[in-house]
Structures are given as structure tokens and as C-alpha cells.
């Protein structure tokens, strides 16, 4: 989380997150925003940046007005408990994972940030579409840029889920040190998943299991394979639910892709049935394939914003984010 320039001279704070680790620094304005959104409560533990003593938020006079029902003096006792004990004593359990909860949370996240998220998806989509018009080299570029581009998109959406206002360009610039890791993860994930689809089921499994891969890399600063494996282990624990969630999000794309594939197969059979395959017949097939491919890509763009938001919501619920809603 970045501090706004206008707030750089104001005190900053660190917070104990749901995973027991400090999170910050953040501004007082940001903490008040989290309180108003029920992402932090009176018992959430914070400290001034540079200090060693942790205290409940309600014991800080600058935040006391956010909890009029409490007497700040009763909450003011400072303590130096181990991080794991602080987390257990002062934070509630994360929101449980459920298909309906993730769909609703993803929808709300998109509604609150529609234009930035839709704009980020459109930027990614346009870059990929432009590169696909370049023979051979364009496809290679798409393969190598998949990790950084999707990493930036997930970084933006994850920050906005946690109360930030990061844009796609800002997210991309913040990931400069992680670019090599994201490139490796994107190339590795794409190639292994494609090989898995030769046997169908392994490809389907990896598509679902690695859906949090980029999120682990950008959020927990893991290496490429570690991020993919962390995603696989996390998703496998709720594999059925995550599979249903992704199927719902991408259902329009699956239907259009199936329809387009059947249409293209029918055209191919017609062309093959007219005689031997020549350059002319291949050109005719390519002419038929162009509009079908464009239709599929347009539907991909339309489903992408909600799908990304739902995946981020599922990640937050399954992985226990540093800042989360407290009920």
C-alpha cells in the first residue's frame, strides 16, 4: 500500500493482519477507511511505524472517534505478545469460502471499481489482440507477456479489494522486480497446461489448480514454481468449489468457444470434402476462422472483469489476506 504524497508527513502505522504478520506502513486516513468498511475493528492491533508496542486501534486517540460506543481508556493497555498470539486474540476468522459468497463479493468489488478494472482488462486485451496480428513473433510475445500483464491486473484488483486505488499502469510499474518471476510462471504455466490438454483431464486440473498462481507471486513474493504449487495446494483443498466458481464465471466463453469450434470443424469438413487440401482451401478455412476467433475474444473480454474479481475474492477467503473484512 502506498502513501499519498499529501500524507507523507503524517504518522504512518503497521497492522497485524489475519495471517499474523505486520502489514504496512499505511496512513491514518487509510485505517479510518478500513474501519468504515468493517475491514478493521476496535480490537484490531496496530502500532506507529518504528515503534515496538502493539495496541488496539481504539486505544489511539486519533481513531477513538471511530468507536463512540467504547471507552478508549479501557482498551489502552499495551502489550508485546508474539505475532501468532496477537492474531488469535484480536482478529476473527476470515470470511468462509463459498461459491455464492465469492460470486457476490466479486460482483461488489467490480461494482465499486468498474471503470478501473474494466479499463485494465481492456488494456490487457488490446495488447494481446495487437500482438496476435504479428505472425509468429506476436504469439511468442503474448506467451512471454502473459505473466507480467495478468500479474499487473491481479495486483490492481487485489489492492482495490484491500482498500487501495491502484491503477493498471501503477500496478505494472510496481512489479518491475518481479517481472522475471512472472514471465517464467506465465510461460511454464501455459506450456504445461497445454501439454496437459493433450490428455484433457490433466489440462483441466491445472487450469483450475493454478488459478491463484499469479496472486501468490505478486502478494507473497514467491518464486514462479512455488507460487504455482502454493496455488495448487490451496485450490485442491476446495477443488470442487473453485471448479464450479470458474465454470460459472467463464460459462459464456466456454459456450461460445464450443460453438465456434463446432462451426469451424464443420467448415473444415466441407472444405476437405471438396477435394485435396491446397493453399486455396487453407486460405478459405482461415477466412472462416477469423470471425469465429474474434467472437471468442470479444466474449473473453466481456467475462474477464467479473472473473478476475471473483478469483481475487476466492483467494482472499482461502488464503487469509493481511487485510480482510471483519464481521
Can you tell me about this structure?
- The chain has 327 residues and is mainly alpha-helical.
- Helix content is 63%, strand content 5%.
- The chain has helices at 28-36, 83-90, 99-112, 114-132, 137-161, 168-174, 179-196, 201-209, 213-220, 224-236, 239-249, 251-273, 279-319, and strands at residues 12-16, 22-27, 45-48, 55-56.
- The protein has a 4-stranded antiparallel β-sheet with strand order 2-1-3-4.
- Helix 3 packs across helix 13 (279-319), helix 4 packs antiparallel against helix 13 (279-319) and helix 7 runs antiparallel to helix 8.
- It is elongated and about 85 Å long.
- The two termini are 23 Å apart.
- The model is unreliable at 71-93 and 321-327 (pLDDT under 50).
Amino acid at each position: 500500500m502506498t502513501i499519498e504524497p499529501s500524507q507523507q508527513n503524517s504518522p504512518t502505522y503497521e497492522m497485524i493482519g489475519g495471517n499474523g504478520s505486520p502489514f504496512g506502513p499505511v496512513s491514518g486516513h487509510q485505517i479510518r477507511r478500513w474501519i468504515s468498511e468493517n475491514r478493521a475493528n476496535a480490537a484490531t492491533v496496530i502500532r506507529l511505524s518504528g515503534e515496538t508496542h502493539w495496541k488496539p486501534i481504539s486505544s489511539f486517540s486519533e481513531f477513538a472517534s471511530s468507536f463512540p460506543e467504547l471507552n478508549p481508556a479501557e482498551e489502552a493497555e499495551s502489550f508485546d505478545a508474539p505475532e501468532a498470539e496477537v492474531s488469535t486474540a484480536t482478529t476473527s476468522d476470515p470470511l468462509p469460502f463459498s461459491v455464492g459468497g465469492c460470486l457476490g463479493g466479486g460482483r461488489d468489488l467490480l461494482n465499486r471499481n468498474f471503470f478501473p478494472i474494466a479499463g485494465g482488462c481492456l488494456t490487457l486485451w488490446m495488447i494481446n489482440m495487437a500482438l496476435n496480428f504479428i505472425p509468429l513473433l506476436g504469439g511468442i510475445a503474448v506467451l512471454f507477456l502473459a505473466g507480467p500483464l495478468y500479474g499487473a491486473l491481479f495486483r490492481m484488483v487485489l489492492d482495490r479489494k484491500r482498500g487501495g486505488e491502484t491503477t493498471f499502469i501503477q500496478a505494472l510499474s510496481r512489479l518491475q522486480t518481479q517481472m522475471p518471476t512472472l514471465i517464467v510462471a506465465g510461460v511454464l504455466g501455459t506450456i504445461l497446461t497445454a501439454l496437459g490438454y493433450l490428455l484433457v483431464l490433466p489440462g483441466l486440473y491445472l487450469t483450475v489448480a493454478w488459478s491463484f498462481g499469479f496472486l501468490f507471486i505478486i502478494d507473497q513474493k514467491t518464486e514462479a514454481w512455488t507460487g504455482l504449487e502454493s496455488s495448487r495446494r490451496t485450490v485442491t483443498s476446495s477443488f470442487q468449489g473453485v471448479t464450479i466458481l470458474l465454470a460459472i464465471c467463464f460459462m459464456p466463453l466456454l459456450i461460445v468457444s464450443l460453438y465456434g469450434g463446432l462451426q469451424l470443424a464443420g467448415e473444415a469438413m466441407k472444405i476437405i470434402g471438396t477435394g485435396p487440401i491446397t493453399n486455396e482451401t487453407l486460405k478459405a478455412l482461415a477466412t472462416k476462422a477469423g470471425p469465429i476467433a474474434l467472437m471468442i475474444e470479444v466474449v473473453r473480454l466481456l467475462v474477464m472483469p467479473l472473473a478476475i474479481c471473483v478469483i481475487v475474492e476466492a483467494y482472499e477467503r482461502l488464503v487469509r489476506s493481511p487485510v480482510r473484512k471483519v464481521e
